[in-house]
Design brief:
alpha/beta, binds magnesium ion, binds adenosine-5'-diphosphate, 2 domains, six-stranded parallel beta sheet, Rossmann fold, about 50% helix
């Protein structure tokens, strides 16, 4: 009776056969012999070598990484010979390496609950049909040119109609600044507050420090966007323990802070004064004063670009 190990053992003749068969393709043969590995080792890996060869061939013909034919986009299955055995790994191709390098600036922008498209927002793509953008783009250009010389560069409170492109424009600025190595965070403020509140209540009865960490992180980041401020449900906590300290710190440290809102500053003041615990005009006023210190106010009234 055959032992179980014998049943699964491929006999050497079959290995030789399969390898010789594969080598009838001259290009494959050249490929494997160029690896400078002995034949008796090569023949143990015929099917993996064929896969690696096919991927290598795809790479040679490749003109655009977006049309990559390999199993994993931008990677080639590659043999590595060590200690008399061949192992295979997926290696990044040159085109992918270039793409990663070109996009590495994106690591400088942290997006919290923001639309993904903002990661690739670019002044080059900005709609040119609408004059209302010109003063904003002009301000941003000056901001970029003078960021390093100015002692107290000011952000923008960008107010205006829904879908006019407020968030998009500030994302263009942050992406441009990221290329110069300046770090930023763009935070969809209403959602951020909800998440922060969740981690805050968990932190009360556990060692969860994420509330403090998140708040500290955005407090200190060189450029900050609080997106859609005024759309959140204001509470004493969000106004006095989150927004207030963040703005205070950024004001004292001259850290440029940007806001987008559908509300004017007057409307935001009203909205911040009313919480479920009552009306507090003084505390709302204080927040508005800080925003005024931190920003110049610009309007963007334009057609709704959302599809
Ligand atoms: P807002 O923040 O004012 O509500 P968004 O910035 O979210 O508006 O813009 C609405 C939509 O229009 C988004 O999908 C955005 O990508 C697109 N968009 C806005 N402005 C531009 C622009 N200048 N160039 C290209 N796309 C834009
Ligand atoms: Mg927006």
């Amino acid at each position: 009776m055959k032992k179980i190990t014998d049943i699964y053992k491929v006999d050497e003749n079959s290995l030789i056969h399969a390898f010789q068969d594969a080598c009838s393709d001259k290009e494959f043969k050249d490929y494997v012999y160029n690896l400078n590995i002995k034949e008796d080792i090569l023949m143990k890996y015929t099917s993996s070598l064929e896969e690696a060869y096919n991927e290598c061939k795809n790479c040679k013909k490749c003109k655009n990484i977006d049309n990559c034919l390999n199993k994993i986009r931008g990677y080639a299955y590659t043999p590595i010979f060590e200690n008399n055995i061949i192992t295979f790994s997926y290696d990044a191709c040159d085109k992918l390496k270039k793409e990663l390098k070109q996009n590495s600036y994106k690591d400088n922008v942290d997006l919290y609950e923001m639309p993904k498209e903002m990661a690739s927002a670019s002044f080059k793509e900005v709609y040119k049909d609408d004059k209302s953008r010109i003063p904003i783009i002009k301000y941003f250009k000056e901001f970029m040119d003078h960021y390093n010389d100015l002692e107290k560069p000011k952000g923008v409170y960008l107010t205006g109609s829904f879908g006019s492109g407020k968030t998009y424009l500030i994302s263009c600025l942050f992406n441009e600044m990221a290329k110069k190595g300046i770090k930023s965070a763009a935070v969809y403020y209403p959602e951020f507050l909800v998440n922060l509140k969740g981690s805050f209540s968990r932190a009360k009865d556990s060692e969860d420090r994420s509330f403090e960490e998140k708040r500290e992180y955005i407090k200190r980041i060189p450029l900050l966007l609080l997106d859609d401020i005024g759309a959140e449900n204001t509470s004493n906590w969000s106004r006095d323990e989150v927004l207030g300290p963040i703005l205070q710190y950024r004001m004292e440290n001259h850290l440029p802070t940007f806001f987008t809102s559908n509300l004017t500053l007057d409307e935001l003041e009203k909205s911040l004064s009313i919480t479920s615990s009552g009306v507090d005009k003084v505390k709302a006023r204080r927040i508005i004063e800080r925003i005024k210190q931190l920003t110049v106010t610009l309007d963007l009234i334009s057609k709704n670009r959302r599809s």
